[in-house]
């Protein structure tokens, strides 16, 4: 069973109910309850479904955590609960555990109060009145009273069956009256801390409670679902409020948000099938909205407005917003315009114009609805242009994915409605700031394009064997894709559709409207290109050894106290990536150690520096150098999906918990008190635990709810933003220029000590560092290191903050603080 904190409220409720049925049936059978009475419900023979293909391969990778399926599964009817309880209670040698009574009480609290609250209303439609109000609760309460006298005497007596006046029940009833209160009750919320009752040992039969299918059962399930997704919705609002206020990065916010919507999709899996038995999602949400209105004290005649063209009372907008009914209604309007091979074209101004600078709080319900309609109709047209006309669009969020599914099935899922609602929520948080998301994306894409162009200028006549021409071709493809996105492929699709329809596109048609309208897609697009250039930059630095071996020389000079300046760009890179990315073991402190660490990093021995080499011995190691280790452990877990267009898409809380466990950033302080800080983990023991988590050995986050997981994920992604954004291609050029300067200045002395054979071509520039270190072992002096000092100091003065300057232009200014004599970013 998944860790309790990762289970949806409805799944938890179902497991509670099934465990009650299983314990009653198993215990009664062990006491001699007639088998023919026990199995008068449906008996299902368990089958072992054989997985095939990819599903089978994936199953093999996962450790088995479940017991073998029993031979049969018995469905215990609800009406049999009381007879079974009475039979068990009649046996003197049977005692009832508190775990059973506590589980029973949780289910009563989860169900209690709804039917009674609904029945109190004056005018209740027949369809709602026909629901089996209180039937199941009455059964459970009777079981509780029958078994209560037989509770183990050594255990604390269970609380009585809760009445409607108790806090637990009234809290849950309030859920139906106000969706702003999230938890049904403390009892139900704390359920994971209590062990559920189990069938008696040796009973090989699986028991389940009779599936509930009444309207009341549906509303209970829907309440639990909406409670769960509203927590996620609230967390997403927290993300984008902090983005608007400048605390969170756009790409990190988008990845965390889309993952949150993934989790909401996961939570709907158990509940959504119930909608079909009651007319589908649209009818269910209509009934749900009606119930909410009745519980708010409205009369049926007040709910429907005869003066409105569509008979909807828009004065109830804020209540309707909590039921998702209006968003579902707007999304439903997409279906009639989805025609084969047709791209719906939204005429600008058809439903008015969205004014993001207006005050939404002062608007009427209908004016708010108008804003919803304008925004959703606009984004729908942009989505359809991509779905129908753009192959291989770089990224896909859950809203775009939902529209793709809608075009195929013509059926609306709750997740699509939720994704649409999140789209609206983000706009109403950002308002006039929403367009800045596209500006941020465009600014970064143009920067990435310049980075690649500068690379080609720098390497026009500079080549190396382990950076083949195919890599340069890949870089040109990356540039081409940037220009393709900036040129807006969806715009061209719409323009052709307009030409076919009326001969020309309207002059008011705007480029990049999809990315301008969707902050999530803009953020995911930024993540896509940022992670790709990060991958390229690390590979480039590893192929040339530029950053690593420049750091080795810089570290040796610092350790010898020969420098008067600090190389801030290098200090930043070292802080972000850690010494383990550059040194085997701890960083060296002496010249002898520096030489050994250099050779270990190069994957060679010191013999290559001696004069006893025979003939032309290649200075490159056949084993190859040790490169910079893979970084950004949390962010990199999303690259398969958002960079490579494959991999995990349906994230479960378990998946997210494992990813968050990899993070090397942690929070300190309190959000409420304004003392919250985000810092890198530097405790070696904690880092070891993180390494174990990467290989699936343990998990720290399995007790978090989905919304808490998203909070932890958001902080992990934010912590890695700088590491993922650092322009490693620029740092590579800076470090190669650094090595050039050192080699040029030290060349006469290098020739004097080692002859002109010390270097044969510029691609071997990194070996100059080794020759500088080797002097100490060869002749016992450090003349070369001292000679390099002046050049290095001058280089740091003139070029040592190039990368910092680029980051500042991208809106990521870095400050350095001195701690214990060391400089940290």
Explain how this protein is built.
- The chain is mainly alpha-helical and 825 residues long.
- The protein folds into three domains: 209 residues, no CATH class; 328 residues, no CATH class; 177 residues, no CATH class.
- Helix content is 57%, strand content 3%.
- It is built from 36 helices and seven strands.
- The strands form three sheets. A three-stranded mixed sheet has the order 1-2-3. The chain has a two-stranded antiparallel ribbon with strand order 4-5. The chain has a two-stranded antiparallel sheet with strand order 6-7.
- It is globular and about 100 Å long.
- The two termini are 43 Å apart.
- About 8% of the residues have low confidence.
Summarize the model shown:
Helices cover 57% and strands 3% of the residues. It is built from 36 helices and 7 strands.
Please specify the SSE layout and strand pairing.
Elements: H1 9-30, H2 35-38, E1 43-45, H3 53-61, E2 72-76, H4 81-89, H5 98-111, H6 114-119, H7 126-129, H8 135-147, H9 167-177, H10 186-189, E3 206-209, H11 215-244, H12 250-268, H13 272-276, H14 281-295, H15 300-303, H16 317-323, H17 325-332, H18 365-389, H19 398-409, H20 414-430, H21 436-458, H22 469-486, H23 489-502, H24 513-517, H25 519-544, H26 546-559, H27 568-577, H28 591-602, H29 639-642, H30 653-660, E4 665-668, E5 677-680, H31 684-694, H32 706-725, H33 728-754, H34 767-779, H35 783-799, H36 802-809, E6 817-819, E7 822-824
Parallel strand pairs: 2-3
Antiparallel strand pairs: 1-2, 4-5, 6-7
């Amino acid at each position: 069973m998944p860790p309790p904190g990762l289970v949806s409220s409805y799944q938890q409720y179902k497991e509670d109910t099934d465990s009650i049925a299983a314990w009653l049936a198993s215990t009664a059978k062990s006491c001699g309850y007639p088998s023919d009475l026990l199995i008068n419900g449906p008996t299902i023979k368990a089958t072992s479904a054989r997985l095939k293909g990819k599903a089978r391969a994936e199953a093999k990778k996962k450790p088995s955590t479940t017991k073998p399926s029993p031979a049969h599964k018995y469905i215990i009817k609800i009406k049999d609960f009381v007879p079974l309880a009475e039979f068990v209670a009649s046996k003197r040698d049977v005692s009832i555990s508190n775990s059973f009574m506590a589980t029973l009480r949780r289910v009563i609290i989860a169900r209690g109060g709804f039917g009674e609250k609904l029945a109190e209303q004056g005018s209740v439609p027949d369809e709602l009145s026909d629901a089996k109000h209180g039937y199941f609760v009455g059964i459970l309460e009777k079981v509780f009273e029958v078994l209560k006298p037989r509770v183990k005497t050594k255990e604390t007596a269970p609380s009585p069956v809760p009445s409607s006046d108790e806090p637990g029940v009234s809290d849950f009833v309030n859920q139906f009256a106000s969706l702003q209160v999230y938890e049904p009750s403390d009892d139900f919320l704390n359920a994971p801390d209590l062990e559920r009752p189990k069938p008696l040992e040796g009973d090989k039969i699986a028991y389940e409670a009779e599936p509930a299918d009444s309207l009341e059962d549906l509303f209970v399930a829907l309440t639990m679902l909406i409670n769960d997704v509203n927590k996620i919705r609230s967390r997403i609002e927290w993300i984008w409020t902090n983005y608007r206020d400048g605390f969170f990065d756009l790409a990190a916010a988008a990845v965390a948000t889309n993952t949150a919507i993934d989790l909401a999709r996961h939570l709907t899996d158990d509940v959504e099938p119930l909608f079909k038995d009651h007319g589908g999602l649209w009818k269910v949400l209509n009934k749900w909205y009606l119930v909410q209105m009745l519980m708010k004290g409205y009369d049926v005649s007040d709910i429907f407005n005869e003066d409105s063209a569509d008979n909807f009372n828009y004065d109830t907008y804020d209540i309707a917003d909590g039921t998702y009914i209006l968003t579902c209604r707007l999304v439903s309007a997409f279906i009639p315009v989805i025609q084969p091979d047709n791209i719906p074209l939204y005429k600008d101004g058809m439903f008015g114009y969205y004014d993001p600078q207006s005050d939404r709080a002062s608007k009427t319900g209908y004016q708010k609805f108008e804003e919803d309609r304008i925004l959703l109709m606009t984004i729908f047209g942009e989505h359809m242009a991509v779905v129908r006309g753009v192959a291989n669009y770089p990224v896909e969020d859950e809203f775009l994915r939902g529209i793709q599914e809608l075009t195929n099935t013509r059926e609306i899922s709750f997740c699509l409605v939720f994704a649409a609602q999140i789209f609206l929520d983000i706009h109403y948080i950002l308002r006039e700031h929403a367009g800045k998301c596209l500006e941020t994306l465009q600014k970064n894409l143009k920067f990435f394009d310049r980075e690649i162009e500068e690379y080609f200028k720098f390497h026009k006549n500079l080549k190396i064997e382990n950076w083949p021409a195919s890599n340069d071709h890949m870089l040109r493809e990356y540039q081409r894709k940037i220009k393709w996105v900036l040129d807006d492929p969806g715009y061209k699709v719409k323009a052709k559709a307009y030409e076919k329809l009326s001969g020309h596109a309207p002059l008011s048609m705007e480029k990049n409207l999809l990315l301008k309208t969707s902050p999530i897609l803009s953020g995911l697009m930024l993540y896509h290109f940022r992670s790709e250039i990060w991958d390229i930059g690390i590979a480039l630095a590893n192929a040339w050894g530029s950053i690593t071996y420049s750091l080795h020389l810089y570290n040796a000079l610092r350790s010898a106290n020969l420098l008067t300046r600090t190389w801030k760009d290098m200090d930043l890179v070292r802080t972000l990536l850690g010494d383990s990315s550059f040194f085997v073991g701890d960083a060296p402190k002496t010249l002898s150690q520096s030489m050994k660490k250099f050779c270990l990093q190069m994957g060679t021995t010191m013999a290559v520096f001696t004069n006893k080499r025979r003939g032309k011995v290649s200075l490159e190691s056949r084993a190859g150098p040790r490169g910079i280790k893979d970084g950004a452990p949390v962010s990199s877990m999303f690259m398969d999906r958002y960079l490579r267009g494959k991999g995990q898409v349906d994230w479960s809380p378990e998946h997210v918990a494992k990813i968050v466990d990899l993070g090397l950033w942690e929070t300190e302080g309190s959000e409420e008190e304004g003392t919250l800080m985000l810092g890198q983990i530097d405790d070696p023991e904690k880092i070891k635990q993180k390494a174990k988590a990467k290989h699936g050995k343990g998990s720290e986050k399995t007790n978090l709810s989905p919304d808490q997981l998203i909070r932890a994920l958001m902080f992990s992604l934010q912590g890695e933003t700088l590491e993922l954004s650092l322009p490693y291609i620029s740092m590579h050029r800076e470090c190669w220029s650094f090595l050039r300067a050192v080699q040029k200045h030290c060349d006469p002395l290098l020739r004097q000590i080692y002859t002109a054979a010390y270097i044969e071509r510029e691609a071997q520039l990194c070996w100059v560092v080794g020759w500088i270190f080797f002097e100490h072992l060869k002749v016992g002096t450090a003349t070369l290191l001292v000679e390099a000092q002046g050049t290095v100091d001058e280089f740091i003065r003139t070029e040592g903050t190039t990368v910092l300057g680029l980051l500042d232009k991208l809106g990521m200014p870095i400050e350095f603080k001195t701690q214990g004599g060391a400089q940290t970013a």
